[in-house]
Amino acid sequence: MKDIAELSGVSIATVSRVLNNNGRFSEETKEKVLKVIEETGYQINYSAKTLRMNKSFSIGILVPDITNLFFANVVEQIEEILFDKGYSTIICNTARDAKKEKAYLSVLVSKLIDGLIIISGADDFEFEHQSAKKEIPYVCIDREPKDKDRTIFISSNHYQGAFEATENLIANGVKHPAIVLHKKSSSSSKERFSGFKDALKKNNIDFSNEENTLFFHTNKQENKTLLKNFVNDHPDTDGLFTVNDNIGLDIILFLKELNIDVPKDIKIIGFDNVPTCEYSNPTLSSIKQDTEKIAKKAVSSLIKLIDGQTEDKGKIYLLPVQLIERESSKLQ
Amino acid sequence: MKDIAELSGVSIATVSRVLNNNGRFSEETKEKVLKVIEETGYQINYSAKTLRMNKSFSIGILVPDITNLFFANVVEQIEEILFDKGYSTIICNTARDAKKEKAYLSVLVSKLIDGLIIISGADDFEFEHQSAKKEIPYVCIDREPKDKDRTIFISSNHYQGAFEATENLIANGVKHPAIVLHKKSSSSSKERFSGFKDALKKNNIDFSNEENTLFFHTNKQENKTLLKNFVNDHPDTDGLFTVNDNIGLDIILFLKELNIDVPKDIKIIGFDNVPTCEYSNPTLSSIKQDTEKIAKKAVSSLIKLIDGQTEDKGKIYLLPVQLIERESSKLQ
User: Fold this and answer.
1) ipTM for the assembly
2) Residue B307, class by beta-carbon neighbours within 10 Å (0-12 exposed, 13-18 middle, 19+ buried)?
3) For chain A, N or C: smaller number of CB within 10 Å?
4) Mutate to test the interface with A, among B40, B62, B65, B90 (most CBs of A within 10 A)
């Protein structure tokens, strides 16, 4: 501060006032001080830029679970694109906890972010703007916003993915498909459930909760028992669509213990295309989401909103997904 | 602001001065305004708390790669412990890029964090405190700080893990072990390299870079060729210690294509104990780091520093690791 004062020929108090932006200085003085600050290095440069443009050049991301590789990949790619555009990314992990999410929203707002990216979550997303000093632009990925007109919604076409996976199972000879999912589901797994049911309908297979649905818990040992009981009660089951790869990978191990062969006896297709799909035995077929496109679309949409271009507000972008066929769903 | 002014019986300008903490108001006025602010909800409550205690109750984390499950797990657990203690966690992903790391350090400082946790990275960590307005306490995980006296260093005992893995291979009959690692290595992989070499020494196995070291690149296809050439040039190789599980998992697939049986012909032990180890065929033996202990120690150390308890400064905590034996290293 002392050096900056000397270099710009003003008092230390004036430099402090400029840095705190509290108004008791002339435009000319401000310019002089900011120029010196900018010349003395990046970190203060950053503050100076913020003061000058009334922007912080930082974007907040709310993510439900960074240990989920799909989310981690999306976040990583968003960060990369934003950094190239001069924005820094601040990530907060909400652990799928509504209270935590609310707290982190407040934190991010208090950290003066320019915009916000919301990734997934259990319920529709609602941003209580009245608590923020100014309206903060935001976009939602894989999670429906409550206030659709104020934001842009970007999502993989989960319905299409589930529909294609189920039709692929049927095309490969599956007569009695079931879906495996969690009770407490996100908006994207609800879409996947719909896609599964509609594929059955289209192929004239009757759907019943009893015969075509298996709900998993979070405990692995418990799930093993649930699966065992399900295949005992429904021995005709010859294909499983699992709403995510983690469920599918566990089932491959469970079925091995039950001496049920995958894909000969039961074919499996998962969702998300996590790296482990390539290492399991058999390798797991899965639906791949285009994380790169999701990241690009989220960033470009948000930056438009930040720049005051509001013509995309209310838009929904559904990005296509792709079936990656591996051993677990192969026709024998 | 208007409501707060009305409720606390002062002018809007005074509320603004209190919020910006610029000093031109009495303690009594400040108390009155803060009380009203605290009563009107969490987000402003948060700012009020910050002003009152001169603390932001937020902690920054610099992580090199959130798509690495070991890092993601550590971060997730740190967040959980911190949140329970009333702190929010702000995560920045540096993508193993020194420039980015510097930029994010500046961002975090400008966001008024109370403390900083640095996870891993290529070089020793150096925090240029002169650029920060006040000294920000920090701790380092898996990365040696340059200025050891100013911080606390927490790390798994990578040396011990590598030593035990290598001795286990030898105990299971391996006569010609090799280590597989990346050229550009972190301080933790350097430790792992030392552990490997010392285990060879203790067991009277000569070490040479030519015969006992295989350097991998980042490209999978290239690595397949590198491995193929290595086993051709050194057909005696019967055990591999890979510095991380990702390398070990790829090698299992590569060796399958080369019709080399794991563990009969070549035994493998990895490092990190990522979930995929349980899904591969054969399952991959690995060294497990105690992420929970790492997270707990990092948080308790940092909070001590923040609270002004400096007696632990300069300390190094090396946490024990554990060999998880699976099929890939089994005695035949």
Assistant:
1) 0.79
2) exposed
3) C
4) B90
